[in-house]
Amino acid sequence: KLAGCTLFITGASRGIGKAIALKAAKDGANIVIAAKTAEPHPTLPGTIYTAAKEIEAAGGKALPCIVNVREEQQIINAVEKAVKTFGGIDILVNNASAISLTGTLETATKKVNLMMDVNVRGTYLTSKACLPHLRKSKNPHILNLSPPMNLNPMWFKNHCAYTISKYGMSMCVLGMAEEFRGEVAVNALWPKTAIHTAAMDMLGGAGIEKQCRKTDILADAAYCILTKPKTFTGNFIIDEVLLREEGVKDFDVYAIAPGHPLMPDFFLDVEIDTTAMKQERYEKKLSGSQQEGADGAKVKTESAAAKLSGPVAETFRVIQGAMTEEYVRSTQGVFQFELSGDGGGTWYIDLKTKGGSAGFGKPPVTADVVMSMSSADFVKMFTGKLKPPLAFMSGKLRIKGNMALALKLEKILSQLNSKL
């Protein structure tokens, strides 16, 4: 269906952009790889040239172009080169994106600028440069990799700048779909679950891939959208929802680890675990009835003792016992935990002061990271039943302070899990 069509894809040297390119290449499409990486990156896989080889091996024609979407002239040059090489542009995929999951006070100005420049401004300027050529195509499409706009404050409170930048891409869909209705289709595509990419490895750490799907699911969903008529416009599409409508029934083929629980993606409200809520209510009711004794003071003493003898206290005892100078030397951070529920209160892990320490109360020195969550989720997190990225993305964990140090905690947890 896409044979002979020319796709201009930003950020196509790896990940989702490359997956969409390879899917179209199988039809014999022309792919303009508009991305920054010309020289091999020390940690990230692929360049525009290695992607070009893969695209041509899959049956397409490739035009690698060095494009930093922050630089308007680089975008214009690549668009002109694409038109000169392939005679026009039929499809634009705005995939290039920057991410920093940090709070307002923790987000450096250069990070704010990067996200706004790449996500919002880059999407806008690339669309602007391609639109005159898209209007000449028989079935033109713009597809932005951006979410439906969900104004639940939960999606703003932990990473306000990132959310604004991604919603900026979505607003481009909202405005341009209406502005160019009847001429160019403009849609947004977003995954229902986390997708395994180099960025996800960086954010989630080792083992995160088991909770992710392959990039293939977005490639298949993008293909469905880009082969629809241009009257299909102004839609905010979730990959799994669209593919189910198209008749796909087996989603295990997209899983990195079939059968393993999947992490929901950002901006999609997850279904509340009512079983866990009922259990929590039952436990509260039970603890309330136990406190209806004649000797109120005695009950209070017992609950204070319980705080230092329950699962939370036991977890901190194991952490204290597992402390090593190596942990302290490699981490250099102090973590404070504000826990609600049974065994709650303020707890800490000091991996900065010589010897390290962990326990109840405020840390001996100012915390670098403050994490707020329920006691039950804290225990799940430290016993490997709940991954920190999933806890954070689903709103169960709030983080204030140094996000890079917070990510280091994932590594510590994986080393401690065997002892907990």
From TrEMBL:
<protein>
    <recommendedName>
        <fullName>Hydroxysteroid dehydrogenase-like protein 2</fullName>
    </recommendedName>
</protein>
<keyword id="KW-0560">Oxidoreductase</keyword>
<dbReference type="GO" id="GO:0005739">
    <property type="term" value="C:mitochondrion"/>
</dbReference>
<keyword id="KW-0576">Peroxisome</keyword>
<feature type="domain" description="SCP2">
    <location>
        <begin position="325"/>
        <end position="413"/>
    </location>
</feature>
<dbReference type="Pfam" id="PF00106">
    <property type="entry name" value="adh_short"/>
</dbReference>
<dbReference type="InterPro" id="IPR003033">
    <property type="entry name" value="SCP2_sterol-bd_dom"/>
</dbReference>
<dbReference type="GO" id="GO:0005777">
    <property type="term" value="C:peroxisome"/>
</dbReference>
<dbReference type="InterPro" id="IPR036291">
    <property type="entry name" value="NAD(P)-bd_dom_sf"/>
</dbReference>
<keyword id="KW-0521">NADP</keyword>
<comment type="similarity">
    <text>Belongs to the short-chain dehydrogenases/reductases (SDR) family.</text>
</comment>
<dbReference type="InterPro" id="IPR051935">
    <property type="entry name" value="HSDL2"/>
</dbReference>
<dbReference type="InterPro" id="IPR002347">
    <property type="entry name" value="SDR_fam"/>
</dbReference>
<dbReference type="InterPro" id="IPR036527">
    <property type="entry name" value="SCP2_sterol-bd_dom_sf"/>
</dbReference>
<dbReference type="Pfam" id="PF02036">
    <property type="entry name" value="SCP2"/>
</dbReference>
<keyword id="KW-0496">Mitochondrion</keyword>
<dbReference type="GO" id="GO:0016491">
    <property type="term" value="F:oxidoreductase activity"/>
</dbReference>
